[in-house]
Amino acid sequence: MKFLDRNSNTNRINDDIAPVVHGLLENKQLFDDDGSDRPYVTNAVKYTRKKQDRRKTSEYEGDDDFVNSILDIFDFPPLDFQVNSWKTVDRLDRDRKADGRAKAGIFAAPTGFGKTEAFLGPLYQLLKEDRQNSTIVVYPRRALLQNQLERILEHIHDVNDGGASDLSVGVYMGGMPYKMEHVEDNNTWFEQERGTTRFKLANCWCGEDGDSHSFEFSGHSKAYTLTCEHDDDHSFTSRELVLSRKSIINDAPDIILTTLESLELFALKPNYDIIDQVDSVVLDEVHLYTGLRGAHASKIIDNLNDITAEPLLWLGASATIDSPTRFAKKLFDLGEHDITVQKPPESDYDRSHNDYENYYFLISSEEGATASSMMIQQLMLIGHSLMAEEYGPQGKILSFIDSISQINQKQRQLVN
Questions:
Q1: Are 190 and 217 in contact (CB under 8 A)?
Q2: What are 13-38's pLDDT values in tens digits?
Q3: CA dist., res. 327 & res. 43, Å (int)
């Protein structure tokens, strides 16, 4: 990693990133006056870069029936990482039943390498083959749950439309109705628009950017159907998409999407019926379960393992996890022999390009701009550079911020 400040030799900087470094270092704090003695926003920049991870898929030519059945669902050329992950879940499911011990699988791969399909594919197949009764997928945030629900609905539609199975998915989280008769009027699930009840959690997959296709509610107190406003064939009955708490407790759907806070409730006595039907639990973005949150998650996992009659299969997926085996041992309280880690092999990487990811770490003086102020002013600098027509389209800025309240605060500050 290079350390650069206003005294650094510019020959040390690659020509393609020199303007960015120069701009970050020369940018000055904004005040009402136009004086030239304004302090700099950033004192120094630490910089590094690495080649972008590009995926390279290939047609699967193996004869594994389990893998080929999954490919019938997804219909895409898989990465070797995905094929290996599917075989791993198949093996771990057999092993947990054979030796009566819980098992864990960790899928660690860069963003864009299909981790979601790596764990969903084999779970769909296990459910189709009746080797599992139900699986729980735990998301760290509601927003991520909603994002994944649309993808899962498409998968379930494809599976059920083929007539080979009849998979179902349920959503369990705070604010949901207890009985089916209250589903339509529930503000967590639906909104009213000109006499039409529209589903809020997910749109149909057939929509495109700027042209979303909503699911519309029709039904009564004992049954309902959600139908895409654009394509009547894209629809789900109350047995395929379960949205009431009582229905999930009485007859758990094949897939339950939830959050960690709701998962904790499954270990409490009134909800034992749910966990008794579950064979596997997935923790998406598993790297977030560290520190106090990680200790909390580990205790929940211990509780669930204690009350289940059969050993559970635990799966975790992450793009940024360090030492995945050690991490899994702590989180799941399992021995190394009960844990399998899958990472993309070299065969999954396309090395034939010359594109890089650049990382800039900005350092301000102790008396200078705060981290928040520095972020805003440097974003404005980069934003103005994106508007320069002489360089053509420059893409967009995507900013990750910890909480909704901070997002709202930054929005107000940027507008000002």
A1: yes
A2: 888 888 899 999 999 887 656 656 78
A3: 36
